[in-house]
Amino acid sequence: MRLKGKTAFVTGGRGGIGRAICARFEAEGAQVFAGDLSDTGSLDRAAAHGQYVALDVADEAAVKAAMAHIEAQVGKLDILVNAAGIEIEKTIEDTSLDEWNRSFAVNVTGTFLTSKHALPLLRKAARDGATASLINFGSYDGFIADPGLAAYCATKGAVHALTRAMACDHGPEGIRVNAICPGYIDTPMLQSFFEGDGSGAAGKTIDQLQQAVRDVHPMRSYGTPEDIANLVTWLASDEARYASGQLWVLDGGLSAQVQQMRL
Amino acid sequence: MTRLAGKRAFVTGGRQGIGRGIVEAFLAEGAEVITCGRGPAPDGLPCAWQSLDVADPDQVNDVAQTIGKIDILVNNAGVQVERTVTDSTDADWDAVMGVNARGVFNTCRAFIPLMGSGAIVNIGSISGRHADPSMALYNASKAFVHGLTRSIAVDHGPDIRCNAICPGWIETGMLEAGFALAREPEKARADALARHPVRRFGRPEDIAAMAVWLASDEAAFATGQMFTVDGGMTAASPIQPGLL
Description:
The complex is a heterodimer. Chain A has helices at residues 16-27, 60-73, 97-125, 150-170, 188-195, 206-216, 225-236; strands spanning 7-11, 31-36, 51-54, 79-82, 132-137, 175-182, 247-250. Chain A is α/β, with parallel strands linked by helices. Chain A has one domain (7-185, 224-251): 3-Layer(aba) Sandwich (Rossmann fold), CATH 3.40.50. A seven-stranded parallel sheet of chain A has the order 3-2-1-4-5-6-7, with helices on both faces. In chain A, helix 1 (16-27) crosses helix 7 (225-236) and helix 3 packs parallel to helix 4. Chain A is globular, with a radius of gyration of 18 Å. The mean pLDDT of chain A is 93. Chain B has a single domain, classed as Rossmann fold (3-Layer(aba) Sandwich). Chain B contains seven helices and seven strands; from the N terminus they run E-H-E-E-H-E-H-E-H-E-H-H-H-E. Chain B has a seven-stranded parallel sheet with strand order 3-2-1-4-5-6-7, with helices on both faces. The termini of chain B are far apart. The interface between A and B is medium-sized, with 27 and 29 residues.
C-alpha cells in the first residue's frame, strides 16, 4: 500500500494507460478520481476503478469544476497525472489548423490547465515535509520522430519543456513535477497507429506489423499500460521524494539504439 | 576560401576517410596542416606527416614538442571492433579504448599547453549517444569522447573551445565492409538509405565541412557541444513501419 492516504486525479482516466493507473493507484491505497470525456472512454467499455469526473481538459470551466469537486470531497490532492492525450496521424502538410489546434488544446493546454488549477490543492498536500507529485505524459516522440505524427511530436516536446519549467517553479513548494515518456504501449492509440495510413505500413496485416515492431525492441515486446502504471506509481510515491524535473523514458530500450537496419 | 588562413592545424588519422577529408578541407581553407598515423606517410599526401600511434603517451608528447604551437587540434583517429561485451577480449579493450579514448586524452593533454588558445574538434559518434548492436567498446569509447569534450570546454575555456562532431553513416571502407557482410547486401543498402531523410549516406566532406566551421572564428561562441551530422537518421524513431 504505497499510496495509502493519498488522493489522486488521473486525466484520461478512462483511456488505455489511464485505466491501468487508476486500478494500480487504488490497489496501492489511494483515493482516485478519473477524469475523461466519457465514463467509458476510448476503450468504450465500463471501468471499475476511480470515481468518474466528467472532464474536457481543454475546457477551463470543466477543469475548475473538477478541482472544486475534489476539494469538496477531500480537500487536497497529492497526485495529479496528466494522461489525457490525442494523436493526429498526419504530416504537417495534411494537418488542418483545426487538427493542429485540437492537438495542442488537449496535449499541451490541457496539461497547463489541469496543472494550474490543481496547484492550490497540491499545495495543501505538500505540507509538513510531504511532497505532492505531478506527473505529465510526454513521449519518446518528444525526442525522436515517428513518421506522419508531426503535431503529436511537437506537443510532446512542449510537454517536456513545460515539465522542467514547472519543476523549477514549484519545487520550492514541495511539488515534484516529472514526465513519463512512453514508447510503444498497447493502447487504442497504438492500434489506431497500426491501422492508420500515417504509419506507412498499408498492405501489411496488423499481426505482421505488430511482430515486426516487437522485433525492433531490445526487449522483443512493446509495453503494456501496467508497465507505465508501475513507474507512475513509483513517481507518485514517497520513495520518489527527490525525483523532480526529469523525463522518464520507458520504451523497452527502443530509443537506446541506433536505427535497426536490415543487414 | 580562406576561413582558416594563418591557422596551423594538427589532424590525427588523416591517411584516409573522414580524417583525409578534413585535411583536404582545411588546406582548401588556407590552413597549414599536419596529420599523423601509424607507419609511413601515404603516397600523394598533400600535407606534412608524423608517424604516430596516438595511444602511446610518450610518442604523443614527443610529436607535440616537434610540432609546437598549433591553433586547431582535430582528434579523428579511431578504430572499431564489432563485438559484444562478452565477446570482447583484453586486446580489443586496449585497441579500442587505447586509440579512441586514451588517444584523445593524450593529444589534448599534450597540445592544450602548446595551443594557448584555439579550437579542439573531436570526432565522437551517434554511437556514443545511441547504441549500435555488437559495438560495445566502440560505443562506450565515443561516449568517453563526448564527456571529455564537455570537460575540456569547461576547464579550458575561454582560451580553448572544444566541440565534438557525431557522424552518422559515412561512406568509408568501414561502411562498405558492413554491407558486404550482410545476408542480402543490396537490400541492406536500400534499407539503410531509406532511413536517411536526405536519402544518401554521408561523405567525408560532409563531416569536414562541420569541422571547418567549428575550427573557424565563425564558431567563436560554440563550445562544449556535440554536433550530429547524420543526414537526419537519428531524428527518426528506430521503428519505421514502412520499412518493416
